Amino acid sequence: MNNKEIDTNIEQEYKEIIEKNRNIILNKQVESKQKKVQKENKKARKQKIIQMKYNFYKPIVPYPLLLDFEDVTYEDPIYLNYIKGLENTVPVPKYWKNKKSFLNVKKCINKKKYVIPQNILETGLVDMRKSIRNKEDNMSFKAKLREKLYPKTGKCFVEYQKLYDCFFKHPNEIEYLRFGELFRPGIEMEKKIKLNVPGRISKNLMNVLGIDKTLP
């Protein structure tokens, strides 16, 4: 055999190997696409079934506004909805179905700085701490080490009556969360809107406008 014939045979074998590999790769791609389509079909079927159940239970349930899409998967969604509508019930937080972990996202970027309340400022503790810090800044390194080894107590002395007035007579008003209200990031920045019933006027507004109870 000549060298040319050998080269042609090698080229043909090489081409056959490449074609086989291409066919194998194409078959794998087709199989993977088919599997994805099957999975998508399963998800779509589940969603359709849940949607049908949701549409079925929506008019039957006693509190349709409280019915969630996930409540349909419960054994008795009507009873679950009835429990949700009862008084003094704490709802499940909505972030339970989020993929991100709770408090993972920083939403309090524009948070206000902490301000010391007025009742604590009146005791004079802030001024005492400032004066002590100024003294420590002017001290030498050896004196600072001595204070760490042998600290002195009784530097900040405040009268008992001032502390009593601060925490008992003039306490700082703290806004606590309401019943059933759960903590979430940025809740301090939100404005609390009072729910007013339409058609009812307060007594102060009636006095200002000069409206009597006899008027319609």
Automatic annotation (TrEMBL):
Annotated Gene Ontology cellular component terms: nucleus
Pfam families from the UniProt entry: DUF382
Domain of life (superkingdom): Eukaryota
The DUF382 domain, residue ranges: 63-184
Protein name (record): DUF382 domain-containing putative mRNA splicing factor
Organism: Hamiltosporidium tvaerminnensis
